[in-house]
Write a structure and sequence with these properties.
Largest sheet: none
Oligomer: single chain
Distance between the termini: 22 Å
Number of helices: 14
Helix content: over 70%
Number of strands: 0
Shape: globular
Strand content: under 5%
């Protein structure tokens, strides 16, 4: 039934889904505010502990989750089309590993706040520069060379992470493991990530037509006037920036950038003009739901949101593989 819907009809449905998931996040928790109470607070009314709970705790966390999920899904959609590789995900270039190493070093040094955020983002940028620098070498880089260097850099970062966890003080291990598995409990202001997400959509929307041609092959795209090398570099850098922002905000959260683009292609086809904004809305909404479950399913304890996305993503991905043998 769902596949019979026109592709364009999915966009308003996904927009509604995003709004509903944020509303569920604002209303879920130990203290129930109610849908009318949430609406009143968002419109400037209400007061007391309910208003403080919604505006200072739940709303920033929900918006952070939406921005993180949207950035990961958008990055995954771009990389899968550009690389023509169904296994490409936002972490394929080693960005997550660089951010994780820097974040764990910051935790061991005892820094927090903006210093921790800057450390994680700086580590991601160093990983991006290292991957692109090594992949370029003395000549031009190719997709295969870039992927191989990304895998090697990610493996090296994984070894460094194991070393840091082995020598870390016991009182820091829980926070480190939670961050590595994806954790939004300490997410700061969501505005920077939302601005990156909005700016990213403005940047990649004009490239959607070229990406549709690019999906048919680089030779055909070049024959039709697409500047392949410039488009490829722009997409790689954009996807790396989106991933770095998401990892800095919430740690390593898997399966969102891998599964969401595949699911949307089953539902609405492979037109990038529709798929890219749909990926942002579905990825953001799914991560908001996952984070809501992570903080409520065994409350007052919280689960790493990356654990839930993996538990949900594994059966979905296996289903997709079964559908497309």
């Amino acid at each position: 039934m769902f596949r019979r819907l026109p592709s364009l009809a999915w966009l308003p449905l996904l927009a509604l889904f995003s709004v509903v998931t944020v509303g569920i996040a604002l209303n879920s928790g130990t203290i129930q505010v109610g849908w009318f109470g949430v609406g009143e607070i968002l419109l400037g009314g209400g007061g007391g502990i309910e208003r403080q709970l919604v505006m200072e705790l739940r709303l920033p966390r929900a918006l952070s989750a939406f921005a993180t999920g949207g950035l990961l899904a958008l990055s995954g959609a771009l990389l899968q089309v550009l690389l023509r590789n169904p296994l490409a995900d936002p972490y394929v270039l080693g960005v997550s590993g660089g951010a994780a190493v820097a974040a764990l070093l910051a935790m061991m040094a005892g820094v927090g706040g903006w210093w921790f955020t800057a450390s994680a983002f700086g580590g991601a940028m160093v990983a991006i520069a290292l991957v692109f620098g090594l992949a370029h070498g003395r000549g031009s880089w190719s997709d295969t060379r870039l992927l191989l260097v990304g895998v090697v850099v990610a493996s090296g970062c994984g070894a460094l992470l194991s070393f840091l966890l082995a020598i870390a003080p016991e009182q820091d291990l829980r926070g480190m493991l939670f961050w590595l598995m994806g954790d939004l409990s300490h997410a700061g202001r969501a505005l920077p990530a939302l601005l990156v997400l909005a700016g990213g959509m403005v940047l990649v929307a004009p490239l959607a037509r070229s990406l549709n041609v690019m999906a048919r092959g680089e030779l055909q795209a070049a024959a039709l006037g697409v500047e392949v090398s410039r488009l490829r570099l722009a997409i790689y850098l954009s996807a790396s920036l989106f991933t770095a922002t998401a990892v800095t905000l919430a740690g390593s959260i898997g399966f969102v950038g891998l599964v969401v683009p595949h699911l949307l292609r089953l539902l609405m086809g492979n037109d990038q003009r529709l798929l890219l904004p749909a990926a942002v809305m579905l990825g953001g909404g799914l991560l908001v739901l996952a984070d809501t479950l992570a903080r409520t399913v065994i409350a007052p304890q919280q689960l790493p949101v990356g654990v839930l996305t993996a538990l949900l993503g594994v059966p979905v991905f296996l289903y997709l593989l079964q559908r497309h043998r």
